[in-house]
Design a protein that fits this description.
Blueprint (H helix, E strand, L loop, with lengths): L10 H19 L2 H10 E3 L2 E2 L5 H30 L6 H29 L38 H7 L13 H21 L5 H22 L5
Helix pairs in contact: 1-7, 3-6, 4-7, 5-6, 5-7, 6-7
Length: 229
Amino acid sequence: MPHGTAIQISYGTLAAVAVLLGASAVFYYFPGIDLWAARELYVGDGKFYWSMNGLSHVIDGPVDMFLKFGFLISFICYLALCALKVKLPPELHKKLIFLYTTICCAELLIINFILKTHWGRARPHQLAEFHGPERSHFTAAWQYAHECLRNCSFTSGHAGMAACTALLAVFLPKTWRPAYLAVAVAFTALAAFTRMAHGAHFLSDVVISVLIVWTTAMVVRDIVIPAKP
């Protein structure tokens, strides 16, 4: 960034922050929303709506791993090009920095390291109410707890990873972006629903993960790809 150039915070970033804070407040102060959604997907005997559904296992397994390894391999290739001092077009370079910075900050740092590792929220299928073997207690979104020791429910890594597919729109021509974003949103919604219907996450887990990715992307975009005057 040139000397003396101030970072311009866009209205889109302010809107994303406002939506994230608003959704977080709703789920925190009205935790019954999470329990209602989980009960709607619970079919009894410790099982949820899609506990045995093949599609949920495909999205949870092969598709999720393909996305993670796809981003990882592309990031390694990018680092190799930088190490070899290969000149990339400036606009492409900015977009790649935007992509990898957003994924690292949102998915790896905030969602997986800070929240999932330390917040201790039990998954729906672990709750005593749903006959979970751990007999854990329900806690609200953003409520610090010790109901889970590792790989906990808050927030959803799968939903966050699915939301990251929308970031690839920056590499497409502007005329193609709306159609691609519609597909990315539909895929993210499907991935989020399968996690909930599998009893692995609450509604707030998937919603807040998606909003964290969106908000982080907007902040990084303002810094890396500022709007042209």
